[in-house]
Each structure stands twice: as structure tokens, then as C-alpha cells.
Amino acid sequence: MAYQPQSQFPPDREVFTVSRLNREVRSLLELSLPLIWLEGELSNLARPGSGHLYFSLKDENAQVRCAMFRTRNMHLRFRPENGTHVLVRARVGLYEARGEYQLIIEHMEEAGDGALRRQFEALKARLAQEGLFDASAKRPLPDLPRQIGIVTSPTGAAVRDILTVLRRRFPAIPVIIYPVPVQGAGAGREIARMLARAGERNECDVLIVTRGGGSLEDLWAFNDEVLARAIRNSPIPVVSAVGHEIDFTIADFAADLRAPTPSAAAEVVSPDRIEWLERVSTRKVRLRRCMDSRLQQSGQRLHWLEKRLKHPGRRLMEIAQRLDETEQRMRRAQRGHLRHLAARLDQTRAHLARVAPVHRLQRLEAHRCELERRLHVATEHRRERAAQRLAAAARALNSVSPLSTLSRGYAIVSREDHTVVHRTTDVRTGDRIIARLHEGRLVCRVEETYDD
Questions:
Q1: b or e along 91-127 (b: 16 or more beta carbons within 10 Å of the residue's beta carbon)?
Q2: Helix (H) or strand (E) holding 362
Q3: In the chain, what are the helix, strand and coil shares in percent, each to the nearest 5?
Q4: What is its main location (predicted)?
Q5: In the predicted model, what is the mean pLDDT of residues 156-172?
Q6: Which DSSP letter does residue 429 get?
Q7: Which residues lie closer than 8 Å to 416 by C-beta, 6 or more apart?
């Protein structure tokens, strides 16, 4: 018999291949860890012809391999280089071919702006949840403001742009400039205090909070929570015009209206002088036509009234004649009404005589006496029949009553358990029995039994 070598593994042991192990580990990593944010420095950056990016993300003590595919890195706003400090959003995976775990990068931004951006998004979400940005709280801007206020730096380019547009569109509207710093530490709170002061002075119908463009850090004063609440609490409608069209700040969301640029804010708050002059001219023509039409109608009505105008004496005679006619009609109506009431009174009296309660009471009394007599007769008849039935029932009951039998000297014998004794076999010698007589009972003991 040939020798068969035995397997070195027991038959019930599951054996993984390396590929399967890496695949299982990859599934565990991807399912266990959600998208995460990491901050670190780029190194070993490679850009192959495929358009993908491969690099390491490191800090002082460790590093991890990363891959960012072309469909993701084509949206980057900067060019990554070795040594760049970045903030990434990634998911954890495993490169099965080498068994190395790596990060698949979904989003990347420079770390400085990224921190500010996260702070901006967190504040924006919290204030939005409070309802600070609700559209229902936005106030409409005046069509023709009596005075416009500008809260900004008096030396910046933004105020010059706004004044240029206002002079071109409607130079008759006065402007007040509320000077504030628009950049640096504490600038947001200074702007908020100036907004509160402008509201207390109540000199303007609309306020423009503005500054020129810049980086996210330059515009950070307009992402202050205190400033956002001051804008919302201002008694005067506020227009926010901060930076360029692509720049958004918390002040933009809190304001009653967001303008993409300072010049656009000036366009929004000021009416167009030429358009208003055309409107005034059009309304002037319409007013003149309306006045001519009204004068013509009034003249025609006056002419018609003049024709209808009569001498007062003649008018008084006509009124006196109408008064006499009215008096005669009133008297005829009164006499007719009185005759009608008299006829109704006679009808009512005749009806009352017919339905007088005396006759009805007499008929009811006679009917009651008849019913009483009939009730008496029926009661007597019913009583006699009941007495006859009772006597017959008593006779029948007496004929079958056991008491009648007992009165002739018989007795009912029963045991102590009240079972009636019918024959001698129902008892034994020495048993106690009870004999019920016509009057009373006897308690006896069985001495002997006889079968007749």
C-alpha cells in the first residue's frame, strides 16, 4: 500500500490567501472609519502622467501615504508642493498590491485658510440654526432714501467707488460716512458699535457696510458674531458689500441685502436720476390730462345743474303739495288699519266664545264620571273572578298536599342527611332516622327491620 502524506493543516481550519487577507483588511478599514480631517505637511509628492497625485502627509512624529485622484485634484485652488502645510478630508483605505494602508484624499486646502474656513462654516451654521439669516426677517430698502449712511474706512477705495456711483445716479441724496477700521483685531466690534450709534442717531434710511476685496484673513472682521447680531438688531435696513463678488462673509448673510461689490451696493440703494425724471415727467403729463378731464366733467355737471335750478318759492310749493298728499295717504292708511284691527278683534272674540274652557270642562267632567263608574264595575267583576280562582286553587292544592296525608296519622321518614326512606333497605340497624308528623318531628333509632 502506497504512503499518502497527510496535510499539515487540520481539515476544519480556514486558510487565507494574501490577496484575500488584504481585501478583508481593506473592507474593515473603509467600513470602520468615516471621512476624517487631517492636517500635515506634504512630502514625496509625485505627479505621474495619469493626472493623479501621490504623496506623504507627515507631522513631527509620523507620516502616511496618500493618493488624490485626478477627478478630485482638478478642483484644487492652489498648486501643491513639497513642504506645503495642508488640511485634507480623506477616507482610510488599503493598497492591496503592496499591503500598505493609505489615505484616499477627497478634498485639500491650505491649512491657514482651511482653519479660518472651518471657523466660518461653524459660525454660519450656528447662526443659521438660530434663525439669524431667515428671509422673513429681511427688511425692504426704501425706494427714495432721504439720507444714506456708509460704515467703512474713510480712506479706502470702497467709499470712493460708492460716492462716484451715488453722484452719477442721484446726487441730491446726502451721504453720511461713519468711519471705522475694516481690518485687524477688534475691527468687527468697532463696526458693530458704529452700527449701534448710527441706529441711535437715526439720520439715515439705509446703511451700507462695506470694504474692498482681500484674502479671507483680510475680510475676517466681517465674520464676527457680534457684528452679525448688530446688523440684525439695527433699526435701519443694512446692505452688506464686502470684497468681490466671489467673497462671502457672515455679515452678508445677516444683512437685509447682500451686494456683490461696493459699487453694486450704491446702485441698489440709490434710484436712477434719469429714470426718476422720466417717471416725474410721465406723471406730470398724466396729471395734466386728468385735471383737464376733471375740469371738463365739472363744467358739464355745472351746466346741467344750472338747467335744473328752480326758484325756491316754486320748490316750496311743490314740497307743500307733496306734504298734503302724504298726510292724506297717511290718514287713509290709518283708517284702513283700524278697520282691519276691528275685524280681527271680532274674529278673535267669536273664536274665544267657541273654544271657551267651560264647555270643555263640562264634557271632561262627564267623561270622568263615566270612566269612574266603568272602573268600579270592572274592579268588582275582576275581584269576584279572582276570588273564585283562588278558592279552586286552594282546593286543588289541599288535595295533593302531604300535610293532608300527615293529618290522617301518616309520617314522612328520612335519614339525618334528609334523604327520604322509601324501603327498609335504605337504612341499617342502629341508624338514626327522623319522622315528620302532622305536628312536630320524632328522632328514632332503628332496632329491627322487617320486609312485609
A1: ebbbeeeeeeebbbbebbbbbebbebeeebeebbeeb
A2: helix 357-400
A3: 50, 20, 30
A4: cytoplasm
A5: 90
A6: T
A7: 432, 433, 434
CA pair distance 169, 2, nearest whole angstrom: 109
pLDDT single digits (tens) 384-406: 888 888 888 887 777 777 777 77
Separation CA 40–CA 103 (nearest Å): 13
| pTM (two decimals) | 0.46
Q: Is 185's pLDDT higher than 50?
A: yes
Arithmetic mean of pLDDT over the chain? 85
How would you classify the pairing of strands 175-179 and 148-152? parallel
Largest pairwise CA distance in the chain: 158
Structural domains of the chain ordered from first start: 18-111 (2.40.50.140), 131-275 (3.40.50.10550), 406-445 (no CATH)
According to the model, what pLDDT value does residue 1 have? 44
